[in-house]
Amino acid sequence: MTIQLKDLGKAVLETEYAVRGPIVAKAQELEKQGKEIIYCNIGNPQSLGQKPITFQRQILALCEYPALMELAAELFPADVVATAKAILKGSRHGLGAYSESRGVRFIREAVAEFILERDHMGVDPDAIYLTDGASKGVQAILRLLIAGSNDGIMIPIPQYPLYSATLTLYEGKMVPYYLDEANNWKLNHDLLEDSYKKAVAQGITLKAICVINPGNPTGAVLDEKNIEMILDFAQRHGLSVLADEVYQENIYLAGDKFVSFAKVLHRKGFKDVSLFSFHSCSKGFLGECGVRGGYFEFRNVPEDVAAQILKLQSVSLCANLAGQVATYAMVRPPKPGTPSYELYNKEKTAILDEMKKRAIILAEGLNKIEGVTCNVIAGAMYAFPNVKLPAGKTDFEFCMSLLEETGICVVPGSGFGQAEGTFHFRTTILPPTEKIQQVVELFGEFHRNYMGACVTAK
Q1: Interior CA angle at 448 toward 447 and 450, to 5°?
Q2: Where are the domains of the chain?
Q3: Which positions ≥6 away from 84 have C-beta within 8 Å?
């Protein structure tokens, strides 16, 4: 007899990932039937026409196929050739061999230098692990922390479904804390304390708090004061901190800046708060989602626990080598005055400028629609608008109807979590700028008709 659904584990059956759920499946079905679909459901820039950064792909090309080095002087800038040679020398055996489980040390040293330049403080390269995207790093640390079914992790609501799905799979407890929508999705101390107290009253053993900055799906950017409050909260309650910082390049508002949790932790002098920080070359302006490159670093982790992290990562042998190389190129971009710098800076600036433009078009356009409110998109590449729906309707039904009638594919807010009695949807700002304008216009017309049809049906 073949394997049956009843043979599968309960945790697997209960795991959900809204970003690629039934609405996306329906979108793919409609697309096969010839309907034009505007995919706004997932942060996958190159699938929506964003071109790869030239420097990244030139480095990958030479490292994947070193025989090109013979022609490299004619095909590639001198700094690209030198970088590729340095990576291949540092990897010792090229991209076709396993690296050590932490990742190629030469690349981890480059990540450590990147963090030193960003935060003006050092980090041990052995506290850095190269991973298959940030997701694998997050999953590894959650696996480390969940020791039993009563262990809980504080997760922001709305959240990125990676966290809820992974906690379900690992049979831990998701402890939601609500972001303050009225205050541009910042973290609120009273809401954190309320969430903590409710979990303790239920007998849950709280292990850590997860924070996404800049925010997914909210597009919010936390300031240093907010980060300090979160670290104070974690210290007071003996929690580790998981800082998802994959959108640190995506900052759109004048006056805003990315501040890492590690920098604030260091400034505060906390030695009793364990911090795990995550970064990825899938996001930012690179959009190298398919390459699967990223890293995590940890601070204030005892040696015996660090040994368990190494053991856990060793089970998978190592992260893929192409992803490790892409991560090197991310943290060691061309410097001013080098042959590749002018093109690199031009491509980077163009991508981020277009994202900023789309963020403005989308938020301002949605706020002109009656019954829809959208906070300013300060960072990342998403918006999480609040939408009024007729009584008895769900956000899933709304988003499915939106897809079927307009071809716009977004994700219902229920897939990310939302305050009771409210409805949202998540959309990206990644479609080309002219498509974003089209999304706003189509959505406005659809929402007016949808509300009118529901009133008439009554």
Answers
A1: 60
A2: 5-50+344-457, 88-331
A3: 58, 59, 62, 63, 66, 69, 72
Mean pLDDT of the chain: 90
Instruction: Determine contact, residues 440/362, Cβ cutoff 8 Å.
Output: yes
Contacts of 12 (CB under 8 A, 6+ apart): 169
Tell me the chain's radius of gyration from C-alpha atoms: 23
Average pLDDT on 256-281 reads 94
Structure tokens at 76: 């590639």
User: Class for domain 5-50+344-457, per CATH?
Assistant: alpha beta
227, 212 Cβ separation under 8 angstroms? no
Q: 380-407 pLDDT, tens per residue?
A: 999 999 999 888 888 889 999 999 999 9
Percent above pLDDT 90 for the chain = 65
The predicted model gives 101-107 an average pLDDT of 93
Q: How far apart are CA 374 and CA 289, in angstroms?
A: 27
Q: Which helix (H) or strand (E) holds 136?
A: helix 133-145
88-331: which CATH topology? Answer: Aspartate Aminotransferase; domain 2 (3.40.640)
